[in-house]
Structure to design on (598 residues):
């Protein structure tokens, strides 16, 4: 499908993508660039990529597809490093979780003959680093494409086919809509998990309570999400701060409403809310977006 | 271990306990009582119990161990039904998630020769009903015992051994401490999940957004918890309303703090909080309270 692909940043997502590319024979050659030479050595040793170096411009040279898979806060440094090495006719993409601010930032540094098409594969685990990646990460997950104004239609089609070949389903969306919907389905849930765990840690410290022992009552689910990559999530909230702030307000208003019902022992209201929320789980299972086994199949 | 055990309410917890009792040969006879005759028929057909009837007093008769496994709001009705059928020297327990109010309520109706020792096995899934139960539900999970003032020490020891035989680890705690710690490790996480899903549903309705498709970004984890038994959770928040209200306030204060950091693009603060929360996951895994595989082992 491609002659050479370069992945910049072999973390969980980057290394999973590299593995999926190899497994599906989507490129003759696949290389990566990482700041750390320990990582560059490791990804070659593990046969995740064919070559890897901290010299990003060198790795990018002659690539048909370049994937930025580093934290959002590094995009500016990355694009300035590679802009003069991007091959005419190549496709530049990323895997970032927020779009509105980074798309124009990259756009203004990309040569005319390069199609800059932002990608967001909605997939991940709480683990980080090249060793945590696996080739099936994108299977059955949605990947949202947000093409820049300069991207060629044929390249958008090509990138769409690429994501489908690694197992994803593809949607095309503009940056504003993307950032809004992801604040609901991903960013706010993560923030709530971070906040529950943070609140718990504060209480644990102050009152010396053993919260670990009894975490199977619900807390443990949130600690999984709150163990996600801190740098990645710091950048997401900084980049999507307006949507996140608005959603936090809506969340607090609804929480105050539930608190009132709890204080007033309003059985009807609580039962109504708790019954309504049950339905969405079924829809998610029907859409194949989670496994059907109870308790995520944990035993 | 016992001659006859009666389980009142064969839902997820009750039927799992019945299965575990059979599997570990902990009683010569095991019976249950359910309001619905469809359920009474089913639990006998499925060989979960030896006999079952809606006549609770009749089922309880001659039992050495009686387990109330119905919603907290039904305890008063249940205890009034069975008080005159409780055998002298028997143990009465339950599996409820809140203690402070129900313990004295039951206590005042229990004959002197009966040891009323409240239990709380911290285990469950998002499913409900007798068919969703399984014998290993309590394995490696903590069970908290809260003996009433009248309970015999030898009976507390016996009940402790019983829970250990179905796979649990046992702690003894007073009602106040129990309700406080469980509000942190279980009740508040559930309320946050309900609130996220409820907020999402409101937005979905108003803005016609497809939140199902992109739920793998985090939301789906919360929908699992928000699919738990609505009646059970309604009762928990009514019964533990004071602790829950206080915790909601702490949660909102911390959330406002995070919102401020997001609005001010305070990278340091966000990174600090998100890094701190990562550690607790490791402690939970070390304590054997969740499975070690990333993403709960989902694939």
């Amino acid at each position: 499908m491609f002659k050479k692909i370069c992945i910049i940043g072999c973390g969980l997502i980057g290394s999973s993508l590299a593995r999926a590319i190899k497994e599906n024979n989507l490129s003759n050659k696949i290389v990566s660039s990482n700041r750390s030479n320990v990582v560059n050595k490791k990804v070659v040793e593990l046969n995740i990529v064919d070559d890897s170096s901290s010299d990003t411009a060198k790795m990018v040279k002659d690539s048909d597809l370049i994937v930025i898979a580093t934290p959002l806060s590094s995009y500016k440094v990355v694009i300035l490093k590679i802009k003069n090495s991007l091959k005419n006719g190549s496709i530049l993409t990323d895997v970032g979780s927020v779009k509105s601010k980074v798309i124009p930032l990259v756009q203004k540094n990309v040569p005319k003959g390069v199609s800059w098409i932002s990608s967001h594969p909605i997939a991940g685990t709480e683990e980080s680093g090249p060793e945590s990646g696996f080739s099936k990460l994108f299977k059955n997950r949605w990947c949202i494409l947000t093409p820049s104004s300069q991207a060629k239609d044929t390249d958008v089609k090509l990138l769409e086919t690429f994501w489908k070949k690694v197992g994803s389903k593809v949607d095309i969306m503009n940056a504003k809509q993307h950032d809004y919907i992801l604040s609901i389905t991903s960013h706010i849930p993560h923030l709530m998990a971070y906040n529950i765990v943070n609140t718990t840690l504060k209480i644990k410290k102050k009152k010396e309570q053993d919260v670990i022992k009894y975490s199977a009552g619900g807390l443990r689910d949130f600690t999984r999400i709150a163990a996600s990559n801190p740098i990645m999530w710091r950048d997401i909230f900084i980049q999507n701060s307006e949507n996140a702030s608005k959603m936090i307000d809506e969340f607090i208003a609804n929480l105050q409403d539930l608190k009132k019902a709890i204080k007033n022992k309003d059985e009807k209201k609580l039962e109504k809310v708790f019954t309504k929320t049950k339905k969405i789980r079924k829809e998610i299972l029907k859409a194949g977006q989670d496994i059907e086994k109870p308790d995520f199949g944990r035993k």
In short: Chain B is about 50% helix and 15% strand. The mean pLDDT of chain B is 95.
